[in-house]
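User: Hey, quick favor. My workstation is busy. Could you predict this chain's structure for me?
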Amino acid sequence: MKLVTFEVQTPLGRFERLGALRGGKIIDLNLATVLRYGRAGKTRPAERAAYFVPPCLLGLLDGGPESLHEAERALQEVRGEPSGPRNERVVWALADVRLKAPLPRPRGLRDFFAFENHAKAGAKRRNESLAPEWYEQPVFYKGNPREIIGPGDEIPWPAFTRKLDFEFEIAAVVGTAGRDIPVRKAKGHIAGYLIMNDCSARDIQRNEMICRMGPAKGKDFATALGPWLVTSDECDGTVPELKVRVNGAQWSRSQGAQPYWSFPTMLSHASQSETLLPGDVLGSGTFFTGCGLDLNRWIKPKDRVELDAGPLGILKNIVGAPQGRMHLKYKKEGSYA
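Assistant: No problem, here it is.
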């Protein structure tokens, strides 16, 4: 399935719903499940559907494989454009809804550094060789799961940076909780995969890394996810060819590059002496030339950035204007200079 979170307008305001993309339309999975249970003669179909297939992706992941199975069965049984039990709309045209990040509020965000050529390029810019420790274990930083943006959203330009950048990544979403997960079992803990744009303030990130800390403020202001989550039964974690377009012009392509560390290995490592939960997001890091830093080519306000991952979709965002007066340094007292 291709799972989406979409926003609809109702007389009571705007609400997020969980859907599946099929044939260019979105099927509301919770309402489709209500209809299925009703046809099967189940008592209290709406309450059952709220339990097994709630109207949010995080709730669906919490239900585990059984909930995913129930959602898929309901999707398969939708014919035409039925109405819900209270005349609710079940099938939506893409033009009639606003897509949000598939997982608007992930439980955790970890971003790895898994593409060897990108790691080597960074070392070369520092006039260094890639540290041998890079090959000993997959390394990652913990990001900010509270600043998530989705397809079509504006990439915010923080006032503290002059070098805003994108990073084209693929991310795995944890579907089953686990701790100390062996690599051979890790794939079974992945619910699916989606596109991730690790937005980066490069000048701030550089200062943080020189001080042997971070990245933190250089990354924490925004992470884009979308446009949909492809479930693991349709995607095995192989990274498709990736293409970056800015204002319609192709800036780069991955040419089939794969991460040095596989998603099962990354997930296994993250789980050692730490519990992973459904809804945790694990980013791959970008491929070489999957960011402006590798290209020495920088996005500007109002640029249209498209990250094309074939079957995983195209994540489109517009770059915003700097937010307020540009601040670069702090005074000793801690206020902006």
